[in-house]
Specification:
By secondary structure, the chain is an alpha/beta fold. It has 17 helices and 27 strands. The chain folds into two domains: 428 residues, 3-Layer(aba) Sandwich (Rossmann fold), CATH 3.40.50; 101 residues, 2-Layer Sandwich (GMP Synthetase, Chain A, domain 3). Bound molecules: ligand 6R9.
Length: 566
C-alpha cells in the first residue's frame, strides 16, 4: 500500500495543519530543520538506523547511522559557533558529494545559519558572484577546491572564514581553519538554535534567463512540505533505501537529497561519481536501492546505452521511480517500464517552490508525457498570460500558476525583492512555464515561457517537438528552438545528438523532418537540423535552449555560470 493511498481522498481532506501534525512540527517548541532530520529520528527510537550510505568514486563505502548524523552535525554547529558565526550568517558549502557536505548542511541549520550550497564544479567566477551577492561569511570546502576559494577571497571582504574539512596537518593560509568531522569531539546533544517557522534556512541560487543568478531564500517551515511530499510522492516507507541522483548544488539535492528523506528517517544512498550506466546500475544492485529520484537527462543517457547494460544487473530491488527537472517525454516513461518493469513518475517544481507542486502519484493512472496533477494542498492552474485569469477550457495553453501559501515557498530573492514581487500576479505565483490541463485535470508541459516558438502566429512548444524527435530511432537527445525567419517570424530549428551507430546525412535529415511533419504538423517540422555531439546543459541537467536560441538570433547569451562544460 502506498503512503498516499487514494489521491482523490487526500486531495479532499488535506490541510497543511495535517501535514504539520504528520511531522509533529513545533513539538516542544522546536522548528529547526536540523532537529527534525537527526535528533528527532533518535527520539523516535531509530537512532541506530543507517541514515547515509556513501560511496566514493573509488568504490569506498561509508555508513552513518542517525546517531552519527546527529553527533557529527553537532560538531559542525559547535565549530561554526566557536568561530564566531552568528544565526542568519550565510555559510556556503562548496564540496563534492562527500559525507561532510550532507552533514555540515544540517550543522549549519542547527546553529541557525543560512546554508548556501553551491556546485563544487563551479569555477571561481561563478563562485565569487554568488558569494558576493549573499555577502557570505564562511565557506566550507576541501583541498581540491581550495585554490578557487583562495582566488576569490581578495574580492570578497565579507568572507572571513574558510573551513577545510580534509586539511589534516597540512599548512593553511591565514583565515583558513582545518576541521575534521571524524576527529571532532563527539557531543551527544547541543543547544539547537531556536528558530521560528519563518527563520531563513537555505539560500539556493538559480540561474535566471538573463543577468545575474538569483538567490531564492527558504525558511525552516519548508520542511513541512518537503516531508509530506517525500512521503506521498516519493512514497518513502520505513525500510527504504532511497537514491536521489541530484547534487545539493541543485534544489533537488537539498529538498529531496537531504531534508525530505532524513525528515522521514529513511536510509539514503549517495554516489559521488560521474555518470555511467554501468556504475549506476551496479550502485542500485549493490545497495538494493528501492526508490530512485532522477532526471530526464540521466534517463535519456541510460536509454542511449540501451537495454543491454540493464540485463547485466539485478535491479529487482527497485520499486518506485520518480523524475524531475526537465519535461519527461512519453518515450522515456515507456522505456523505463520495459527496462525496469516500472514507469518513471514525473514531478514538477522549481527552486522557488521548494517542494513538488505537480506530480504523478503511486496508484494514480499515468498518462505518459503528462506531469500529473497538483499535490494535495497545492492549488495550481494555467492562467492567461495577459489577464492572469485561470483558463478553464481543457487543452488551452497558459502559464502555470500556483496559489501562494504553501510552506516551502521561497520568501524572497536575496537582495532582489523587486524581482520577487514581479513573480506574483492577480493573487497567483507565476512560474514562467507554459502548460495545458486536460479534462481529467492532468497538466501537460509545453515549454518555458521564453522557449516557446512563434511560427506564423502559432505558438509551438519545444517539448512537443523534442518528444516527437526522441521517438525517431536515430535520435538520442534533442532541442527545438525558434530561429528568425522573414516570412513566418520564427521557424523551428532542431539540434540533435544521434544514438551510437548513426551517421548524420542529408537523407537522415529529410527522414527526421518528415517524421515530425507526419507526427505533429508542417508547422512543427524543423526547417533546419543541426547535428551536435551533445547539447549544452546546466549542472542540474537542463538543456540550455536559450543559449542555442541566442546564437540563432545573434543575441547576448546572458549568464552561463551554471553551464556544464566538462
Ligand atoms: C526542481 C527544479 C525549474 C524549472 C521549471 C521547468 C523545469 C522542472 C519539470 C520541468 C517539465 C518537469 N522543470 N521539472 N519541466 N517537467 N517535471 O528543477 O528546479 O532548477 O529551479 O528548475 O525546470 O522549466 O520552471 P529548478
Amino acid at each position: 500500500m502506498s503512503n498516499i493511498g487514494s489521491y482523490e481522498t487526500r486531495h479532499r481532506t488535506f490541510s497543511w495543519k495535517l501535514a504539520e501534525g504528520e511531522l509533529e512540527y513545533g513539538k516542544s517548541g522546536n522548528y529547526n530543520i536540523g532537529y527534525f532530520c537527526t535528533d528527532r529520528i533518535g527520539e523516535l527510537g531509530n537512532g541506530t538506523r543507517v541514515g547515509l550510505i556513501w560511496e566514493g568514486f573509488t568504490g569506498e563505502v561509508r555508513r552513518y547511522t542517525y546517531d552519527d548524523l546527529r553527533i557529527h552535525s553537532n560538531a559542525f554547529a559547535i565549530m561554526l559557533r566557536q568561530l564566531g558565526l552568528q544565526p542568519g550568517d550565510r555559510i556556503c558549502i562548496f564540496m563534492d558529494r562527500i559525507p561532510e557536505l550532507y552533514i555540515s548542511f544540517i550543522g549549519i541549520l542547527k546553529m541557525g545559519g543560512i546554508a548556501q550550497p553551491l556546485f563544487s564544479a563551479f569555477g571561481e567566477e561563478a563562485l565569487a558572484m554568488r558569494l558576493e551577492d549573499a555577502e557570505t561569511k564562511a565557506i566550507l570546502t576541501t583541498r581540491k577546491h581550495l585554490g578557487k576559494v583562495r582566488r576569490t577571497r581578495p574580492s570578497l571582504p565579507h568572507l572571513t572564514r574558510t573551513i577545510v574539512v580534509d586539511a589534516g596537518d597540512r599548512p593553511l593560509e591565514r583565515g583558513e581553519i582545518a576541521f575534521s568531522m571524524e576527529k571532532a569531539q563527539r557531543v551527544e546533544n547541543i543547544e539547537i538554535a531556536k528558530v521560528t517557522p519563518e527563520t531563513p534556512s537555505v539560500l539556493h541560487y538559480t540561474s535566471g534567463t538573463t543577468g545575474k543568478p538569483k538567490g531564492a531564500l527558504h525558511v525552516h517551515s519548508s520542511i513541512i512540505a518537503q516531508h509530506i511530499t517525500t512521503k506521498w510522492v516519493l512514497d518513502l516507507q520505513d525500510d527504504e533505501i532511497y537514491w536521489c541522483t541530484a547534487d545539493p548544488g541543485w534544489v533537488t539535492g537539498t529538498s529531496y537529497g537531504i531534508i525530505g528523506p532524513w525528515a522521514c528517517g529513511v536510509t539514503q544512498a549517495v554516489l559521488d561519481a560521474g555518470f555511467s550506466a554501468h556504475k549506476w546500475y551496479a550502485f542500485i544492485e549493490k545497495h538494493n536501492v528501492t526508490v530512485w529520484y532522477s532526471a530526464p537527462t540521466a534517463i535519456r543517457l541510460l536509454m542511449k546505452e540501451g537495454l543491454e547494460p540493464v540485463g547485466k544487473h539485478n535491479l529487482s530491488s527497485l520499486r518506485h521511480l520518480v523524475s524531475v527537472g526537465e519535461p519527461l517525454n512519453a518515450e522515456a516513461v515507456i522505456w523505463s517500464e520495459k527496462a525496469f518493469g516500472r514507469p518513471f513518475h514525473d514531478s514538477y517544481w522549481q527552486t522557488e517552490t521548494g517542494s513538488i507542486m505537480i506530480s504523478n502519484y503511486p496508484g494514480m493512472k499515468i498518462k505518459p508525457g503528462s506531469m500529473g496533477k497538483p499535490f494535495p494542498g497545492i492549488t495550481a492552474a494555467v492562467v492567461n498570460p495577459k489577464t492572469f485569469e485561470p483558463i478553464t477550457t481543457a487543452g488551452t495553453v497558459g502559464l502555470i500558476a500556483i496559489k501562494p501559501g504553501w510552506p516551502s515557498m521561497f520568501r524572497t530573492y536575496w537582495n532582489n525583492q523587486e524581482t520577487y514581487e514581479k513573480k506574483f500576479k492577480n493573487g497567483w505565483y507565476i512560474s514562467g512555464d507554459r502548460s495545458s490541463v486536460d479534462a481529467d485535470g492532468y497538466f501537460w508541459f509545453v515549454g518555458r515561457d521564453d522557449d516557446v516558438i512563434n511560427t506564423a502566429g502559432h505558438l509551438v512548444g519545444p517539448f512537443e517537438i523534442e518528444s516527437a524527435l526522441l521517438e525517431h530511432p536515430a535520435v538520442a537527445e534533442s532541442a527545438a528552438v525558434g530561429k528568425p525567419d522573414p516570412i513566418n517570424m520564427e521557424v523551428v530549428k532542431a539540434f540533435i545528438a544521434l544514438k551510437p551507430g548513426n551517421q548524420k546525412s542529408d537523407d537522415l535529415t529529410i527522414d527526421i523532418m518528415n517524421f515530425i511533419r507526419k507526427k505533429l504538423s508542417p508547422l512543427a517540422m524543423p526547417q533546419e537540423v543541426e547535428y551536435v555531439d551533445s547539447l549544452p546543459k546546466t549542472r542540474s541537467g537542463k538543456i540550455m535552449r536559450r543559449l542555442l536560441r541566442a546564437k540563432e538570433w545573434g543575441e547576448e547569451i546572458g549568464d552561463v555560470s551554471t553551464l556544464e562544460n566538462d
